[in-house]
Amino acid sequence: MTTQTREVAADSIAHIVIQNVAKTYASPRGDVRALEDVSFRIGKGEFVTLLGPSGCGKSSLLRMIAGLDTATSGRLTLAGEAITGPVAGLGMVFQKDVLLDWRTVLQNVMLAVELQDLRKADYLDRATRLLTLFGLGDFLQKHPWELSGGMRQRVAICRALVTDPSLLLMDEPFGALDALTRDALNLELQDIWMQSRKTIVFVTHSIAEAILLSDRVCVMATRPGRVVEVLDIDFPRPRALAVRESAAFSSHTRRVRQIFEGFGVFQHDRS
Amino acid sequence: MCFSMTGPSAAGWLKQPPAWLVLTGLLLLWQLATWVFEPSAFILPDPIAIGRALIQNPGMYLVNTYYTAANTLEGFGLSVIIGFGLALGIVYSRFLEATVYTTLVAINSMPKVALAPLFVVWMGTGQASKIAMSFLVALFAIVIDAVLGLRTLDTEIIDLGRSMRSSELKLLWKIRLPNAMPSLFAGMKVAIGLSLVGVLVGEFVSAQRGLGYVIMSAQGAFDTPRVFVAILLLSLLGTILFHTIVLIERRVIPWHVSQRAAH
User: Fold this and answer.
1) A93, B10, B140, B203: which one has the fewest Cβ atoms less than 10 Å from its Cβ?
2) CATH assignment of B47-262?
3) Does A98 touch chain B (CB under 8 A)?
4) How many inter-chain contacts (A to B, CB under 8 Å) are there?
5) Percent of chain A with pLDDT over 70
6) Is residue A141, in this structure, part of any structural domain at all?
């Protein structure tokens, strides 16, 4: 089962190909297998979520797709090229917003332009438009510490989007937000994705968030970290929050829960 | 925080009296105590006698204060420039960390003022030995805090920079340096006081000018009021230098947590 190559028929051309990827970390107690034999494809413009408990290697996998980390074995390619380092046209959002306190909201977004050696004048309009789209039009000249957590994460998303990347990688971007803000940002992200059709790889440990947002959900398990099932989610878009109350949504949720239960994710640690 | 509408009330002053009031009160107490207990002026002169000593020769005090202040600023400036340069080297080079940093830690654990007589032998009794002393005493505070500031960076920020394929130089200029500023200022606030101590020690060992020299020569002449004038001027100088750094800090990093209340 573990050696079986999992190839999901994506109806679009494969943009990212992950082939038998494994990651092993050396530790004083011996090697730790963070990720074992993961294979799947991500189509261009697809919204794919890596869903799993802590330690299932979902962040490791995302970092490898970003080119921030290397696989111990296996192959990762992006548009046919092996991923050897961060590629151009990549936007990243982390759980921490990592905004710079000495920069205003607008300057924080423009940091992406400056660090990528692009002409500021070409992107200033876009930065302002994006921020306005995310409801931050009145906050361009404010500093991060004057903003709420949800607003700060919106700025971080604008920073990732300002250079119009084709690939957006999001590592538990809404994990630190309250449930209502999280819902709002889920919908805003869906809007942005529907307008721009970027390829999005999204990491989360929220089952509902994964099903609400994704075209496909890669369900992952721990020890060793691996992909155990890939679910196709075919609700029509745009999806409203109410879709979570539908029977089809519940059956997806149940399926994921059963998988997690099968791998002991919800067991109390009584040792 | 205060209940009064305009200015601090009498009750507010009692609870938290302003600094000038505390100092004036202390001087008054001092004056009263000398009137009551009448110690010899050689042991403890009264504030009026000290004031008189200052007024008798203001030019002499001004020149010597200037001399000490100038040497302090030069020693401090050198320690900031060289200290920050060393910190950059230490942060970016394992080799420098293993050599320079280790050496600095070793030097720091010995009482650096013990070197003052040696500096006179090497550099003479003039300005150079005082600046060198001042520089050496202040250097460590700068290096330690600058290294700390340059290193303390969220791993996510580094990942963000890498994912944008930023050059290390850009990362340094746009993120690492501004990020290190609060820590560097903390180091400078400690270092400015140490610089003054360094100059003073140099002047104690051998000098023809400076407030340290004024103290030594006054002590030799049993002129205790003059010693006190010099001590007061040194405190004043130290306070002004410290608050100058605080003022610059407020201008340079108004965004930092420590500055926002004043912002």
Assistant:
1) B10
2) 1.10.3720.10
3) yes
4) 59
5) 93
6) yes
For chain B, the domains span 47-262
Helix (H, G, I), strand (E, B) or coil at A232: strand
In a domain, A206, yes or no: no
In a domain, A109, yes or no: yes
Chain A neighbors of B171, CB-CB under 8 A = 115
Q: Which residues of B touch A162 (CB under 8 A)?
A: none
pLDDT tens sequence for chain A (271 residues) = 333 333 443 334 568 999 999 999 888 888 888 899 999 999 999 999 999 998 888 999 999 999 999 999 999 999 888 999 998 889 999 999 999 999 999 999 999 999 999 999 999 999 999 999 999 999 999 999 999 999 999 999 999 999 999 999 999 999 989 999 999 999 999 999 999 889 999 999 999 999 999 999 999 998 888 899 999 999 999 999 999 999 999 999 999 999 999 888 887 655 5
DSSP 8-state class, residue A147: S
Q: Using CB atoms, pick whichever of B156, B166, B253 lies closest to residue A98.
A: B156
ipTM, 2 dp: 0.85
Q: A-chain residues within 8 Å CB-CB of B263?
A: none
Q: Which domain holds residue A161?
A: 90-165
Separate counts of helices (H) and strands (E) for chain A? 7, 10
For A171, nearest residue in chain B (alpha carbons)? B156
Gap from A261 CA to chain B (nearest CA, Å): 32
Contact yes or no for B256 and A88 at CB 8 A: no
Q: How far apart are CA A91 and CA A170, in angstroms?
A: 8
Amino acid in position A158: C
Which residues 160-189 of A are in CB contact (within 8 Å) with B? 169
Q: What is the pLDDT of residues B152-196, one digit of tens each?
A: 998 999 999 999 999 999 999 999 999 999 999 999 999 999 999
Tally of domains within chain A: 1
Task: State pLDDT tens for residues A15-65.
Answer: 899 999 999 988 888 888 889 999 999 999 999 999 999 888 899 999 999
CA distance B92 to chain A (A): 20
| Binding-face residues of B in 230-259 toward A, CB within 8 A | 253, 255-257
The long-range contacts involving B49-52, CB below 8 angstroms and separated by at least 24 positions, are B49/B225, B50/B225, B50/B228, B50/B229, B50/B232, B52/B225
Q: Is A239 left (phi over 0), alpha (psi -120 to 50) or beta?
A: beta
Pairing of strands A199-204, A167-171: parallel
Bridge partners (DSSP) of residue A25 are: A32
